[in-house]
Specification:
The chain is mainly β and about 100 residues long. Helices cover about 0% and strands about 50% of the residues. The protein has one domain: Beta Barrel (Thrombin, subunit H), CATH 2.40.10.220. The protein is built from no helices and eight strands. The strands form two sheets. It has a six-stranded antiparallel beta barrel with strand order 3-4-5-8-7-6. The chain is globular, with a radius of gyration of 13 Å. The N terminus is likely disordered.
């Protein structure tokens, strides 16, 4: 794992919690039944942003699995410029 770093953006005041980069390097997402290894750009207890050439529909459900963790349901919040924003089906606990 890389160095944990809080991401500061103009949208932080609208977010309920900070996003972290470098906490997790990659994840496997199951998109339409097939697994895809993707880089994790940032993560919070409620969602993650990954990098991928996949083209999911807004609201589409995927499964996400981080190393040494169980799969978790997530839905596509947004997708643009090779990045996908996913909201988890329930809050997760982040460990550093």
């Amino acid at each position: 794992m890389g160095v944990q770093q809080k991401i500061e953006t103009a949208g932080d005041e609208r977010r309920r919690e900070p996003r972290y980069e470098g906490l997790i390097e990659s994840a496997t997402i199951w998109f339409r039944g097939a697994p895809h290894e993707v880089p994790v750009l940032n993560i919070s207890s409620r969602g993650t942003m990954v990098e991928s050439a996949l083209s999911p529909r807004l609201g589409e459900t995927v499964l996400v699995q981080f190393p040494e963790c169980s799969r978790i349901h997530a839905f596509v919040r947004w997708s643009r410029d090779g990045r996908i924003g996913l909201n988890f089906g329930h809050e997760i606990v982040l460990g550093g």
